[in-house]
Structure formats: structure tokens, C-alpha cells
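Justification of computing resources. Each target in the renewal requires a structure prediction run like the one illustrated here; the chain below, 224 residues long, is used simply to show the kind of job we budget for.
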Amino acid sequence: MGLVKIFFWGLMISFLGSLPLGTLNVAAMQISVQENIRSAIYFSLGSLLVEMIYVRISLVGINWIRKQKKLFRWMEWITLAIVVALAVGSFAAAMHSHHAKNVILHNNINRFLLGVMLSAISPMQIPFWFGWSTVLFTKNILQPKNSYYNIYIIGIGLGTLFGNFVFIFGGKWIVEKLNGNQNLMNWIIGGIFAATAVIFLIKILMHKDAVEKIDDMAVKEVEG
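Resulting C-alpha cells:
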């Protein structure tokens, strides 16, 4: 019964956490619009694989993670640069032909590998899951056993995939409602990426980024 419960907790948290607009789910939506649903699903599978690995690391290696501040700082700035590039690419596509594609996503990189790469440089996943895992440990829902860890991570992977489905299929549906007007869709997606970049930059400059969150939650864990 405990394994079933932790599976559904992982599924629910991951699904709901995937619904707010972000770099990965919006990129998956744009790939589904520009290319096809299969490519978007491959991209999502790549991104969720990395997320599952990060969750596993956060469960057993938080002390190691806390020592990698410099690495996370670089990852955050690289992530910001990619989000800005995605925004610029979307706006550039919107200003050109009716079926122009975001030049940043318009490449020959395998979509699964692209999902892996973009997800790997997004450190915000680690404090998110470290925080939720701590709560579940406190409530005795998650236990320090491999069986619990494995089923928890499977639930997380499925939750992320289902959350991305909302964007992948929702993006296609919106384009159909817009009578196939990818131009307008590119403007909308570009705006989302631009807003994400601004918010991300503010968090970095105000020191409310992944590094600070990891430190704060690690301190709370020790105090608890």
C-alpha cells in the first residue's frame, strides 16, 4: 500500500509541477507545432529521464550537491542564455514566413538528446524535488528504501510526461483553432520565453535561484 501511495504522490506532484509555463514544456509544445507530436514526445522523454536522475541524486547526494555551487551558477547563466535564444528564435520565426521555424530548435539534433541536454542544464529541478521529498519523508510517505525510491521516480517520470502531453497536444489544438496560424503561435511562445528569461534573471540577481534554495532547504533539514 505504501508503494502505491508514493507512486501516486510522485505522479501528482510531477504532473502539477509540469503545468506552469517553463522552458521545457513550452519547447515541447513548439516542437509539436513546428514538427510533429512524435518528436515532441521524444524530447519530453529525454527531459524527464534527466529529471528522474536528478531526483535520485537529490534523495541520496544532497551534501555533494551543496558543494557544486560554482557549477550550478554556470548552469543557471547557460540556461538563461538558452531561454533568451529561444525567445529570439521564436520572434524571428514570427516575423518571417507563415511556416518559419524557431532557428534554435530547427536543427538535426535527435529530439531525445535535445531534451536530455536542455533538461540537464536546468538546476531548478533539484531544489524543487529536494523540497517535496523532504516533506514526504517527514510525513513517512516516502521511506529510505530502494523500492520506494524506484517507484517514486517512476511516478515522477509519468507525471512529467502527462504534464507535457497537455502542452504537446494542447499546442496542436490551439494551432488548429487558429487555422494553422503558426505565425501567431510563434509570437505567443516567444513572449512566454521572454517572460521566463526576465523572471529567471531577476531570481539570479536577487539570489533566489537554485543554489540559494538548496542551501536553505539543507539548513531546514539539519534544524528539523
